[in-house]
Amino acid sequence: MVHLREEDFDKKEIEYLFNRFGCRLFNCHENGLDKLYKKFPQYRKNILLELNYDNKIENKHEPYDVGGFCIDLAHLEAAKERSSVEYDYVLKHLKNTKFKANHLNGYSKKRKCDLHFIKDLRSFDFLKDLPQEVFSNVIGMEMENTIKKQLEFKKHIVNMLNKKFGL
Q1: Tens digits of per-residue pLDDT, 93-130?
Q2: Taking the domains of the chain in order of start, what are their residue ranges?
């Protein structure tokens, strides 16, 4: 999965990632979805909508017009805790929208926001309370920690999710 930036991503780049590396999932934030929808019609089914938690939905195209959702789990938690419109939007659209991927980073309960640099394993505790239907088979970690640290986090997260899903 690759994150698309609508302002400077071009056709050559997406084709290179698609053909050279077999990348089939490209996520983008809602403020870029409509532009990418127009810009890459042949890749629409590969583009996933990622929402933030600023209490506004900026995309005109629905997630089912493209490949579906990339649900950022910490963004979803922040939207829920802040009573932002994104939380209800995701839950409403889960019924009629494919969704293929998640972003995963930490969450600060105190500040009600996502964390990209994780200091404490408790930053992942919010995952225990999210509804099972918001998890996909593809989870991309979105963290600024070292790879070594991310691998430690991954082990912890896998154990936590295995318990959650009864595996």
Answers
A1: 988 888 789 999 999 999 999 999 999 999 999 999 99
A2: 2-164
